[in-house]
């Protein structure tokens, strides 16, 4: 606007200087002509600068609006990654939605038979056994009309041990005057809480992710009042019992061929020398047999070096087997892959798909284009699943493998074509650039069918800890943080194997009590991958008396 006003003022001044009689021709000196040309050139340059600045401001405003849309979605939007185009939404709105639940007229599975539960019989007598007409007494029939109701009874009680004593009245030399039956094994010396109470505390906090205060309030309903300090002090004494089994899980994890790795924040409200703040990080390494959690005050590559023992492996490496980490694109994983050449990174296609969904949300004009890429990634998942459903050495597997490789070639061609397409905004090309930079890791699953396409298993393993983090905010001390990582490791691993966690803890803690309040020397009977089929079946489906 200021440019137009400037040009108008020049024209007005020029017209006022021209007399009516000389309207047809104007005589200018060379100096005046040069000044006019200089003025025109000045305002032309100003106009170009204003146009460029206007375009930059429009681009900046568009990016800020995209950021606002993204933040609104994160704070107020749904947490699902499912998305559909406007056309699909319109089609779905025309068709009546199928009601939830079982279809009317369909054959159901009936009531679930709970034959594993014990039966307590209660006899109900007929209140009036006389005929309502004549008043005569009826004859009781031998058979009964039975029905069942499932009840749950939880109670707190004191178990009193009466230790018998024996007195000797003989005249033997060096005889004992009296002996007393030995005291029962206790998990904590002189502790008043039995193993069943500690099992309930451990499961409620680390498996069901409830805060301790909520458990204490629940126990009050059963007449058991415990202090917070009693629980905290007991857990501190129990924590060392899980260190050997945690190390056994870790050592077995290092023998695996690939891991799903991920990390999330975890607060530890304790002062640590050289660290500001209370933000720690909970790392998870999920392999074929074990799920290991590590709590560390940093998110750097040092955690990965320490976990994989890279310095020891470099000196004592016996074979050239390749190990794979399925992960996201965080730089720490890239650093460990550069330092350790036999560790390869398999990047997550779910993150790549998420990039296009985020793009469609930030830039509404790109929705149609971005969702086409989401559909392409979905086709890739479908082809890989069909390949995995076939036997690896069969002809069908080879045919489906060729189709998968052809789809990857098409993705490369489409990616490069869109990257060089000037009609596509540079703001939209960020997912494509990321895809190109991480292409080797994204396609590692094609050559190694045992490697998953995404890191969903790693992210799923972090869900229970995230629920716990939201409920009790983190850990109050360093020892509590280490116990948290150990318990997450133990409980998530035995749950992954389908083992009853209550029965496993009962068996392990009883063994610790019998071993003199320390971990048993032989841990093989508690490691799922070391159990035989019979013991594994017993841990998966224990009897009711074993878990009580």
Task: Describe the protein.
The protein has 548 residues and is α/β, with parallel strands linked by helices. Among the domains are: 199 residues, no CATH class; 87 residues. Helices cover 51% and strands 7% of the residues. The protein contains 22 helices and seven strands. The strands form two sheets. A five-stranded mixed beta sheet has the order 5-4-3-6-7. It has a two-stranded antiparallel ribbon with strand order 1-2. Helix 11 packs antiparallel against helix 12, helix 12 packs antiparallel against helix 13 and helix 13 packs across helix 14. The protein is elongated, with a radius of gyration of 37 Å.
What's a quick, concise take on this entry?
With 548 residues, this protein is of the alpha/beta class. Among the domains are: 193-348 and 455-497, no CATH class; 364-450.
Ordered list of secondary-structure elements with their pairings:
Layout: H1 2-16, H2 30-76, H3 86-94, E1 165-167, E2 178-180, H4 195-207, H5 212-220, H6 228-238, H7 243-254, E3 258-267, E4 279-286, E5 291-296, H8 301-308, H9 310-316, E6 323-327, H10 331-339, E7 343-347, H11 349-362, H12 367-389, H13 395-419, H14 430-437, H15 439-442, H16 444-447, H17 456-461, H18 463-472, H19 478-496, H20 501-514, H21 533-540, H22 544-547
Parallel strand pairs: 3-6, 6-7
Antiparallel strand pairs: 1-2, 3-4, 4-5
Helix pairs in contact: 4-19, 4-20, 11-12, 11-14, 12-13, 13-14
């Amino acid at each position: 606007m200021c440019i137009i006003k400037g040009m108008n003022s020049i024209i007005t001044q020029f017209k006022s200087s021209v007399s009516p009689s000389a309207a047809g021709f104007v005589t200018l000196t060379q100096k005046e002509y040069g000044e006019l040309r200089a003025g025109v050139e000045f305002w032309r340059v100003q106009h170009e600068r204003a146009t460029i600045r206007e375009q930059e401001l429009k681009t900046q405003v568009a990016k800020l609006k995209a950021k606002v849309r993204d933040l609104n979605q994160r704070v107020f939007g749904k947490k699902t990654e499912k998305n559909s185009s406007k056309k699909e939404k319109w089609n779905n709105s025309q068709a009546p939605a199928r009601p939830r639940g079982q279809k009317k007229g369909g054959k159901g599975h009936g009531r679930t038979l709970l034959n594993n539960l014990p039966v307590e019989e209660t006899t109900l007598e007929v209140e009036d056994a006389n005929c309502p007409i004549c008043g005569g007494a009826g004859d009781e029939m031998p058979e009964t009309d039975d029905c069942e109701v499932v009840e749950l009874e939880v109670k707190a009680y004191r178990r009193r041990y009466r230790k018998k004593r024996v007195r000797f009245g003989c005249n033997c030399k060096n005889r004992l005057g009296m002996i007393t039956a030995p005291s029962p094994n206790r998990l904590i010396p002189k502790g008043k809480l039995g193993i069943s109470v500690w099992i309930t505390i451990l499961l409620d906090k680390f498996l069901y992710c409830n805060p301790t205060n909520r458990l204490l309030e629940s126990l009050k309903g059963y007449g058991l009042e415990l202090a917070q300090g009693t629980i905290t002090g007991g857990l501190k004494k129990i924590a060392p019992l899980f260190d050997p089994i945690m190390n056994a899980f870790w050592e077995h994890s290092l023998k695996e061929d690939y891991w799903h790795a991920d990390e999330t924040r975890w607060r530890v409200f304790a002062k640590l020398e050289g660290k500001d703040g209370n933000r720690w990080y909970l790392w998870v390494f999920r392999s074929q047999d074990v799920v290991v959690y590590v709590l560390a005050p940093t998110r750097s590559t040092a955690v990965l070096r320490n976990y994989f023992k890279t310095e020891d492996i470099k000196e004592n490496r016996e074979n050239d087997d390749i190990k794979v980490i399925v992960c996201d694109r965080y730089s720490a994983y890239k650093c460990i892959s550069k330092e350790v050449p036999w560790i390869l990174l398999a990047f997550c296609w779910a993150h790549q798909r998420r990039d296009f969904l985020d793009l469609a949300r930030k830039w509404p004009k790109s929705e149609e284009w971005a969702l086409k890429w989401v559909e392409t990634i979905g086709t890739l998942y479908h082809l890989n699943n069909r390949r995995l459903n076939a036997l690896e050495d069969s002809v069908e597997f080879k045919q489906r493998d060729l189709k998968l490789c052809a789809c990857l070639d098409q993705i490369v061609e489409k990616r490069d074509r869109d990257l060089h397409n000037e009609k596509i905004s540079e703001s939209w090309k960020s997912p494509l650039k990321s895809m190109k930079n991480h292409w080797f890791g994204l396609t590692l699953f094609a050559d190694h069918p045992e490697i998953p396409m995404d890191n969903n298993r790693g992210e799923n393993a972090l869900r229970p800890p995230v629920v716990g983090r939201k409920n009790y905010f983190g850990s109050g001390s360093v020892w509590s943080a280490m116990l948290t990582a150990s318990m997450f490791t133990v409980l998530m691993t035995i749950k992954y194997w389908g083992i009853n966690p209550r029965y496993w803890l009962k068996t392990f803690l009883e063994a610790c009590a019998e071993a003199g309040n320390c971990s048993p020397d032989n841990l093989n009977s508690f490691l799922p991958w070391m159990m035989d089929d019979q013991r594994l079946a017993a841990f998966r489906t224990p009897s009711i008396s074993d878990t009580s």
